[in-house]
Records
---
Amino acid sequence: MFANQLRFRSNLFNGSQASPRWTSPYAYGEDLAEWLRARLQCAEYTLGKPSYAVEGWCMECRSGHESHQIRVSKVGTEQWMIEVARSRSWLASLVLPQPAMDRALADAIHAALLGEPAVREVRWIHQRQTVAARRLE
């Protein structure tokens, strides 16, 4: 479960032609993941190589002893989403609320997007539910 989502609009990234290497029609976002990775590598973060995930791309981000998962995906016409969550065990994700993401990481992602003229309408959406809490609704 990803705790924090950032959505924005941009025509900078490929949102119309799926890579022939992937069979899913939702395999957009590889170029966004690489773009974000390049900008965060310049900060204090170490990022893994983006890998294909269901409906998007995912990469690990480390800073000191902290580890986060970052997932990017296309969610509409020229609309993109970046989801960020602290890495933790599967059991903890079922019963405990998602801890807040690292504020410095949020600021670094936000600054990278705001520094790109082709990015607009940047907004954060915070989710604070566990899988168990969602099942009770």
---
Amino acid sequence: MNTLLALGAMVGAVIPKAPVPEVIDSERLLAAIAMVETGNDNSKLGKWGERSAWQFGKPTWRQYTTEPFHRASTDRLLSKRIADRHYQYLSTWLQRRKIAVTVRTLAAAWRYGEKWALLLQDSDYAERVENLYKSTE
């Protein structure tokens, strides 16, 4: 019996425990992203033509709506709905690929595209979003 307990202790020490998934408040995360992107200014235009507080490019906007792209800057409620849908898309995309869904991976996916989430989770951008997110706890 003691040998079995000792073996169990050794196996437990060798097998890493799965990390506890981070619980993310999407509203706080989207607020942090909007603040980093534009200072939460829905009318601000990005240098590549991005629009809204969340700085959607035209392809991302088209992924979720047929409304004219200019409305991203003029209709805050519509832009927020698109932001919510994009957040869900990115979360699901990361989960399906077994990538940890964290504030940093989501921020990196938002800014650089989902395929770059893991590689750029330590970027200055992801760190700024995470700092703002944590400051609103």
---
Amino acid sequence: MAWAPGTKRIHIALPNQGWISVGVACWKGQAIQAALTEHENELIFNVEPIKPYDSAVNHYARVCVDDDADFLVLCDADNAPSICPLQLIDADLDIVGCPTPIKHGDNIIWNVATHDDVGDRWIYSGVSDGLVEVDAVG
């Protein structure tokens, strides 16, 4: 399938077990609106429920590769991204993760970690401004 030169094909996949949270559904609507009004990119949404989760992620990745798309954005069905990951497309990075805040007792931690090779342990990162390089986002 041909598309306009300079246009990026972006697959947005929502791996799910048959339901999508209201926040994610609203984010999907905002992404569509932004694509129609602010960007020249083509968005392709994949929301079919596939179990288990790992199979869904592999399926969506294969669909993206087979379609010769430029980017694959995976968004959990239960947590809407705190920022729209489509804003990061122009950074042209291989992998971008948008962390989710997790309540842990009276504290909030972010599911972002770096690996300490010397101590062979994971160190959870705090909040930072802008893009940072980490080893895991989950």
---
Amino acid sequence: MRRLRPYLWQGDNREYPRFYPHAGITLTINVGHSVMNTPGYILHSTMSDSKEPESNDWSKIEAALRLALHEIERGGVVFVVCDVGVSRSVTFSGMVIAAVEHRRMDYRLADEIRSAIADPLPELWRNASKYMENFV
């Protein structure tokens, strides 16, 4: 579990129960495939790490993104999780940061938020970046 911004944590679903009570998390968005049985409000919006952009339902991902942005605007703290915490949650976190900070979702942002164990799939990052070009 990593704190990427004061308003944003990223990690995998196994870390959630251990950190939730201490991190001030007000919304958890699970972009993985597993179901989490944990306290707090959780939105499950699966993101595919397939190379094909059509493999994702971008309208559902956008709904999750808008919910995260609303939570942050009201002073909340969002935790983005997926099954392993390596690619999908990092990519969705990049989408959140790009929207909040009004910046491009480019590879500088990817470099900024990746770590030794969290490295988004280039195809997924590229597809999300293309989607974010038209996000208002």
